[in-house]
Amino acid sequence: MKERKFVSFKRSIDHIIREEVIFLLLLLPLLILLFLPVFKDFRVIEYVYNFVSSIHKNYYEVVLSATSIYASFLIFHIQNQKEKEQNRENIEKEKLAQKKRYLEKKEERLASARPYFIVEKDKFSNQAKIKIFIEKDVPLENILVYEWSLDDPEDNIAFKNIDTKKSGDYIYDFSLTKLEMILVRCVTYFDEEIYFQYNVGDIRVHYRIVKSEEDREYSRSLGRKYLSDNLIELGEQYELDEQTEIYKENIYDSYEGKLAKRRFFSYRSKILIGDYHYKIYADNKNLIIIDIIEKEKIGEIFSKSINYLRTYPKDFSSEISVELLETIKKYLGDSWYTTCKKYHDPQYFKGNLKDAIFAEKWKSIFDAPVGSHEISNYIGDLVYYCQNNMDVDKFNEYLFRNLEVYLENCVEISESRRGFQNEEDTVYREIRSEIKRILSKTLI
Phi and psi for 352 in degrees, rounded to 5? Predict the structure, then answer.
């Protein structure tokens, strides 16, 4: 915006300068004629003066008249240009004022549904409750509460799904003993994604995810801080988060505050990516199945299907497990549907051979790159395993992890189908239909 104003101003100045230069050039003959009498004592100048005044008197009068008219026109033109420029500036200022008023009203509307969380602590029982307040009486939906204790492993992402709440409601009870952090994630009535963090040391931070550049500029104009500001100060090597606004915080020690925000960034990244996606929707298996079949890559569809089996083995009968494995094996062996690469560093696979029979056979095989032939044989052994070990107490998910990793990294749509949209659509439609049909049996 500042650059556009500067360019417009510069153009206006350049135009005025050009006009004035032309005016001065036209005025120069008149100035010479006007000042000739002053210097007529000089012989040469006296000759010029007498020549112009006697012989070219009429020309003198015409030049004077024309110059006077042009001067009047130029003065009017310059004044008119200044008025136009002033009008443009006024219009631009009004546009900016209108935009500011629009953003102010938008912020006021969004803020009215934005929750404020408080933590009420009982010092005698060492228990605490989280309570919400909202300016307008609108519901708060899609509330997830994550709790971390100091004795939890780093990859723990346990959560609780909370029903819709209104202002004044309590949403969660927890113990202060060994607490590291409570993180509340929710969506407001106007679809803003909000986080509330309660950290050890009684640190409380409210965050919101700002989705548009316009809102981010306005947010910055209000003097609000962003999570990325703290990460820069810490000198962290994270991919900086430019969308997370800190719209309210209660921090007394700057170091503790920065440490808490660093932990928030770390945990939020884990929540939003990877296998934790399935844990977030653990109470809605229908949604998990839909998410699996909508993956954009063939390998991911197969891989996440195996992940679903590993996560919910009790929902899989021996027959369903075998059908899923044999279906995947069928597509891996058909070059019309898939292209399979080799997994060149299968040392990781050895660590997952937590079964004596598998370990004896496959440890030596996993010394070399694993291709479609080896993985098809591995699936064959898993089929036999499912036919004899689908009791939940005996089920060994590590064996299936090897297949999951291979499918995700090494299986793609057939090279001969690429670039032919109708054929690509046929491949995805058939595979998605098959996987959907099989996984849906686990919901009965």
Answer: -95, 0
